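note to self: dont lose this again. the chain is below, predicted strucutre after it. 380 aa total, dont forget to put it in the shared folder this time
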Amino acid sequence: MTCGWSRRGCLAALASAPWALRAAEPTDEDDWRSLIEEERQRQQVPGVAVAVVRGEQPVWQHGSGLAHLDHGVPVQPATIFQSGSLGKQFTAVAVLLLVQDGKLSLDDRLSRWWRVPAAWQRTTVRHLLTHTAGLAEDYPPALLNFQRDYSDSELLRLALRIPLVATPGARWQYSNVGFVLLGLLLNQVGGRFYGELLQERVFAPLGMRTARIIDDTAIVQHRAAGYRLDPQRPGLLRMHEWVSPSMNRTADGSVYVSIEDLAAWDAGVRRGALLRPDLWQQAFDRARLNDGRRADYGLGWFLDADGARRRRHHDGQWQGFTSWWGWYPDENLSVGVLMNLAEGDPQRLGERLVAAVTSSAARQALRPRQRSAPRQPASV
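---
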């Protein structure tokens, strides 16, 4: 039976999926479920997956709503969403792995590998990673068609035609183009597709069992569908628009990932896996501009505060999916949200959940269980 969004009774029956790790008091879980369901209905999101992590362990994982409206499939923690720009963290770590291997330096100029325009002569790898290269946010529509396939050399040639909006290092300007270029650089310097590097040296070692670069032609179990709201008919959902295979493999955030994968990723980052400590430190240093000012961004992470709470976080939006993951080091807490709606606001839900979890009652409920030899989580 087709379960359209207008048939609210069908969704209401699946408002709160039963897949949750029993670590908190039921009253707290009920409050969190209610909060999630309230926000899901308010935002008209078909399905949501949420994780709450303390230390290196997920203490609560939850699915709400539907992963696929055509088939009435409910969201579970194992449901596969698309990362959107949240995946820029993986690209940043892939670059740092090549730095660790001695194959490149963060301060290498792009002119070391490519013939670049005169305005790009001082542009470095670090500029791309920190969004300080002076690049526009996206390829201009007149230059690039997302329904067409492009080779690496074509994507590079088109990027080099885009005028800079600022001198490299002069200001912070979010740029997907910069991370597309980082993927092209990873392919060239690493000698293979950057997705293979991520699979072998990031996803597999960290136990991210289902994470992979997007492939619409592959058989992917538990894959959710992405949706968008019809601008002409309020409340009506449509499937996301088709994107060509090559444009679904770029390094600005083209990753299949579950909330379980993100919890495993969070644990690896917390314990400083994969990279030397000095490289992790650089990842979480705020970018320095030419005039000495600091930007609220490191290497693939936003670095700011939610009120009085310091945090490292990122959001994403792509093909009918939205995502957000926030790590609050002072609270030893992480919260992640995945949604299958282009207009969804996972950060809003995530911040509300953080506030709920860090209330006095939730802190009591989330105290680590006593073990014979308690392990203290490492911090980066």
